[in-house]
Amino acid sequence: MWSGSSPGGGRRSRAEPVKSAVVCRPSATLAVWSSAWLNGTAASDDVLDALQAWAEAHDVVAADPAAADAFDLPLAFHRAATPVQLLLALRAQGAVSVQLVLPVPGDVRGLGGGGPFAEAALRCGDAAVLTGLGSGLGFGLVPEPIAEGLMRWTVYSLPAPVSLEYQPLPDAEHGLTDAIRSSAGALQALDVASDRPGVRAELSAHLRSRPQVEWPSGMPTRALRVLQRAEEISAILAIAETDDPGGALSASAANQRAEALRPLAEAVRIARTASVNEAVRVFAEQADRQP
C-alpha cells in the first residue's frame, strides 16, 4: 500500500499520457512507467496510478537479506513497504530501466539461472529485472496477488546483474504475423477451427475484462501497435482454448489443437516482451539525449 509524498513530487506528468489500452502483465506496467519516471518522462504519481489497474493497493517486500539491505525493504513476513519506497530505492541504486521478463518452462532467459527468483517468476509467468545498477548484484521483482485488491511485489537478489537478450521489435512483429498464418492453416487442417456464433462479441468482452492503463507520453507507436495486436491475439487464443462445445473434441484432437496453438502463444509472448522492452529502451535513450 502507498501513502505520503511521492518521490520526484508532483501529480502532473511532464506530458499527457497516451490513451488507455489493454496491458499484458503487472510487470509490463511497472517496467514501462518506472523506466519513464527514472528517465524524466513521467511523474512518480503516474507510476502509482498506473499500477492501480492491477489492484487497489500494492506493497513491497524483500525475499532475502541482500535485497533488503540494497533497497531498504523489510523481509517477507514482516511489515511491507510501499511502492513509493521501491521507487526511491530504484533511484538510489542508480537503476536505468526496469525490463520485462515473461518466462515459461523451457525458456528461463533473463532469470539469472536457477534459485528463488527463477522459481517465483516461473510460477507467476511474470517478472521484471533491474538494469544499469552500479552494484555487482542483480535484482528481480515478481508481482503476485495475495488478497482481493492487494498485489505484493517481492524483490530478489541475484548473484550477478542480468543481461537480457535484445529482441528486435520488427522481428517480433513479423514472427507474430507468421505464427498467425501457420496456426490458422494448422487448425483448418485439423478441422477444429469453427466460426462460432457471437465470437466477435465474446472477443470484445474478453478484451474489456482485462486491465486498461494509460501509457506514458513518448511510448513508441510501433511498440504500442505490436503490443495491442499481441493482446488481441492472446484474447483469441483464450477463446480458442476453451472452444469445445459440449466437450465434443476428443482428447487427441484437443492435444493436436494445443500443439497448433503453441507457436502462436510463443509469438505472443515474444511480441509482448519485445514491445515493452523497446519502450523501455526508447525512454532510456531519450534521457541520454537530454542536455
Overview of this structure, please?
With 291 residues, the protein is of the alpha+beta class. The protein folds into two domains: 24-165, no CATH class; 169-271, no CATH class. 48% of the residues lie in helices and 14% in strands. The chain contains nine helices and seven strands, in the order βααβααβαβββααβαα. It has helices at residues 26-38, 44-51, 65-71, 83-92, 116-124, 169-190, 199-208, 221-241, 251-289, and strands at residues 20-22, 57-62, 97-101, 127-131, 138-147, 150-158, 212-214. The strands form two sheets. It has a five-stranded mixed β-sheet, sandwiched between helices. A hairpin with a 6-residue loop joins strand 4 and strand 5. The longest helix is centred in the C-terminal third of the chain and has 39 residues, at 251-289. It is globular. The two termini are 36 Å apart. 41% of the residues are buried.
List keywords for this structure.
single chain, 291 residues, alpha+beta, 2 domains, five-stranded mixed beta sheet, two-stranded antiparallel ribbon, 9 helices, disordered N terminus
Mean pLDDT, to the nearest integer, reads 81
Number of domains: 2
Structural class: alpha+beta
Strand content: 5-15%
Q: Termini separation (Å)?
A: 36 Å
How many extended strands? Answer: 7
Q: Indicate the multimeric state.
A: single chain
User: What percent of the residues sit in helical stretches (DSSP H or I)?
Assistant: 40-55%
- Total helical elements: 9
Order of helices and strands: EHHEHHEHEEEHHEHH
Strand order of the largest sheet: 2-6-5-4-3
Query: Biggest sheet, open or closed, and with what strands and sense?
Result: 5 strands, mixed
Uncertain runs: 1-5, 9-13
Q: Based on CA inertia axes, which overall geometry fits?
A: globular
C-alpha-based Rg, rounded? 20 Å
